[in-house]
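User: I'll paste a sequence; please echo it back and then give the predicted structure.

Assistant: Echoing your sequence first, then the prediction.
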Amino acid sequence: MADGFDNEVHNVIMQGECRQRPLVLVVDGEREVLEQASVALAEAHWMCQCCASADEAIAAARANPPDLILCDLYLRAEGGLEVCRKIKRQPGLAEVPVMFLSSAQRPDVLRRSFADGESVYCLRKPFASKVLIELIDQSVGVAGA
């Protein structure tokens, strides 16, 4: 993992834990963002797999299909939108909801509907952990969200 991010601590699924909690695939080149997201998700009883690159994210999604993808919109080398499209082309992953993170100066939360009918949230970095969890809950249809 780039920048020395401790994969073993934050990637609970890699430690043999039964997958009974929903899994979020977090893709961002910034170590601080990966750490903040993983802590927020753990506190909300979500599992998380953190990846710093497109290749890592695609491989992780194939190995452990996520319930949601949280991806930096401006991921290095390859944009986050393209990375998510590649992931969603994989067998069984077409319906996985996607949320984007962006440091661009936009409203804190932007909801955009694409031509194919998919509705996607874009959350501005730095983000409030509570808002992140609320949007993830809404995106995957968690009861009470």
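The helical segments are 7-10, 31-43, 54-63, 80-88, 129-140. The chain has five helices and six strands.
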